[in-house]
Amino acid sequence: MLKLSPHMRYAALSGIVVLAITAYTIYWFTLADQIEIGIEKWAGERRADGMVVEYSSLEVTGFPLRMQAQATNVRIAGPGQNPGWQWHSTLLIGNVLPYNINHIVLGTPQPQDISLRINGGALEQYQLEPQRAQASLKLKRGKLARMDLDIEGGTVSGGRFKEGALTLGRVQVHTRDAKNAEVATDGLQSPTLFDISLKLENLDYPGFANSALGTHVTRLALTAAIEGAWPAAHGVAGIREWRDAGGVAQLKAAETDWGPLKLNAAGTLALDAQDRLIGSLTANLLGYEELIKGLQGAGQLNKDEARAANTGLGIIAMAAGGKDGELTLPMVLQDGELFVGPLRIAKLKPLY
């Protein structure tokens, strides 16, 4: 057997290390080129669909530990001559690890301008100024399988926020890919298009001052399965097409902690012809006495109505044998009004 001297072994090991570094460097820069080409291809495909995708510059940095794509002065808008939405940021950063290119983490450290055309009206201009905003995209076979959005701190101003900025504590949105590709044992496809969970914490808006619930929202959270058929149209037209084809949201759990309103609910939601929420749920309501006081203070219940509501709900609570101030009641959304048991909580406006 040939024996190598220490010097030769060191030289061989050094050569292997140099070869590995060279191979990785070639791999990194090849992948960086592919990422730039892939972004430009994606932008071209979106433009072919009628969308606007613009950016002033694009470069990939981060060697050797990550691939960091940076685009400046980015503007993306919906299709058509009068798009229903558009988004603009002076800087968009995307990070992927060289060994896992199917997981993309996006960050937007700069303020973002968002424009929405609601119900065919003029574009409404909003500005999001987050303390931290990050999105995580996971791909499977080249398609989006999961999306997670996390905004921590900051404000939203402009548009319909006429009485000041909406202050954000934290906003989290999670979506998981369509289930229509799955086939059950009986040969039927699942009607679920995608699963979504949403959590809003510590929101403040001066415009809520005249409501029975107050200006501070401690927590709004929900988990739902969106069922129906994928629409051919985009934006609001697509939502209406989904609705008209019988699309519904199966609300697995919803939690509200907003001033005197503290409830948990589950049930089914949809949209009516005026684009208002409709549905039927079962709600677990806590502290109904404080809620009634708030409704009376806001002028939504007069003295006699408040007394009758307290008496009626008290009888229901006693009959149900629940904890003090805790009730399980039907929650109904219909004809533009929200009822929790016999209480009319709020008027429901069109979503767009």
Secondary-structure topology with pairs:
Blueprint (H helix, E strand, L loop, with lengths): L5 H43 L3 E3 L2 E5 L5 E11 L7 E13 L2 E8 L4 E6 L5 E18 L2 E16 L2 E7 L2 E7 L15 E13 L11 E12 L7 H10 L3 E11 L2 E11 L5 E10 L1 H10 L5 H18 L5 E9 L2 E4 L2 E5 L5
Antiparallel strand pairs: 1-3, 2-3, 3-4, 4-5, 4-6, 5-7, 6-7, 7-8, 8-9, 8-10, 10-11, 11-12, 12-13, 13-14, 14-15, 15-16, 16-17, 17-18
Please give a structural write-up:
The chain has 352 residues and is of the alpha+beta class. The chain has one domain. The protein contains four helices and 18 strands. Strand 6 and strand 7 (123-140) form a beta hairpin. Helix 3 (288-297) packs antiparallel against helix 4 (303-320). Residues 180-187 have low confidence and may be disordered.
Name its key features.
352 residues; alpha+beta; 18-stranded antiparallel sheet; 23% helix
Q: What gross morphology would you assign? A: elongated
Using the CA coordinates, give the radius of gyration: 27 Å
Number of helical stretches of at least 4 residues: 4
Helix content: 10-25%
Question: How much strand content do the residues show?
Answer: over 45%
Give the low-pLDDT segments.
Answer: 180-187
- The total beta strand count reads 18
Total number of distinct structural domains: 1
Mean pLDDT across all amino acids = 87
A few lines on this structure:
This protein is α+β, with helices and mostly antiparallel strands. It has helices at residues 6-48, 235-244, 288-297, 303-320; strands spanning 52-54, 57-61, 67-77, 85-97, 100-107, 112-117, 123-140, 143-158, 161-167, 170-176, 192-204, 216-227, 248-258, 261-271, 277-286, 326-334, 337-340, 343-347.
